[in-house]
Write a structure and sequence with these properties.
Elements (H helix, E strand, L loop, with lengths): L4 E5 L2 E5 L5 E4 L4 E6 L3 E7 L4 E5 L21 H16 L8 E6 L16 H15 L4 E6 L5 E6 L5 E5 L2 H25 L3 E3 L1
Parallel strand pairs: 2-4, 7-8
Antiparallel strand pairs: 1-2, 3-6, 4-9, 5-6, 5-7, 9-10, 10-11
Amino acid sequence: MSAMKSSLYRNTQRITIDPGEHYVSRKPEVISTLLGSCVAVCLYDPENRVHGMNHFLLAYNQSSKQTSIIESDNGRYGIYSMELLINDMMKKGADRTKLKAKCFGGGNVLKLQNDDWKRPTVGEVNVQFVREFLKSEKIPIVAACLGGDYGRNVHFVGENFSVYVKRIGRSLEMAVLKDERRFWKKSLDETRHTTGNIDFW
């Protein structure tokens, strides 16, 4: 992991993560990120007081519709991101069987849908992946705000494991889009080479 951006937020620390990063803590810290097509999974173990968030972006689903995305080449990066998050949480004392999830993002902001091939959008692939992965790992999704055609600002509060989500404006969405396009191209290359309103959740 690269060095995270840290700032003071309501008498605690706020850690901001970017695409491809994750962060885990036992402290009452706030973990924040900006999402477009990416998905952030907020995991927490309420008994052992460990929480963490990742931020990942998959490429297009190149496999057949009969193949589960977590069994496809496209799902490899998502599985890697999820396992990094889970393993780091366990290192800090979390019990894998007690994990709960809140999931956000997967908006269609990259606008990369291919109508000729009827492929899903990048956001749809991310949403499909996270639902399949958490179901296979028997980690319950207790809240989710996924899909749509807009970006989100997400804040995961370690004190009580609540999540605050705000739809971002067009100017900020364009900045997120630029970052995601750069990261999307990088993750796609790696895949090819290796095979307004605030909502409370």
